[in-house]
Design a protein that fits this description.
Length: 130
């Protein structure tokens, strides 16, 4: 995996997440399969949950109708030597989502997405004026 040689866990997780968010990657079952841990789980802002295989299928369909999103405020926190938490906001087609992702280092030294969760929000939810 290309991000296995990253200089530190936080950088590896960020690189993996940005790759994961690329529609060209999540429309490819092979590429997405490389990024998702075998025990992967996701909770979506819709309330749905997915395992690895159902998420690969869902994202492949979703990629046909979406454009790349805009990431902001990404923060990486190393929780353990082999575990990194990312939190950030994602804006896709004017839909805003708070996201959190857990990235785990594999036995081979690469990093895979272990868990992700999204929570939809509006600007008014945040108390912002505009």
């Amino acid at each position: 995996m290309s991000n296995g040689d990253a200089p530190d866990p936080a950088t590896a997780a960020i690189e993996g997440e940005l790759r994961f968010l690329d529609p060209a990657v999540f429309s490819s079952p092979r590429l997405l399969g490389e990024l998702l841990h075998p025990a992967f789980r996701s909770f979506g802002s819709s309330g749905r949950s997915w395992d690895r295989q159902s998420y690969i299928e869902e994202l492949r369909e979703w990629a046909r109708t979406t454009t790349p999103g805009t990431v902001s405020g990404m923060v990486a926190r190393e929780l353990a030597p082999d575990l990194v938490l990312l939190t950030f906001d994602l804006n896709i087609r004017e839909r805003r989502v708070h996201r959190s992702s857990l990235w785990r280092r594999t036995d081979g030294g690469g990093w895979q997405l272990y868990f992700t969760q999204g929570t939809a929000f509006t600007v008014s939810d945040m108390g912002w004026d505009g």
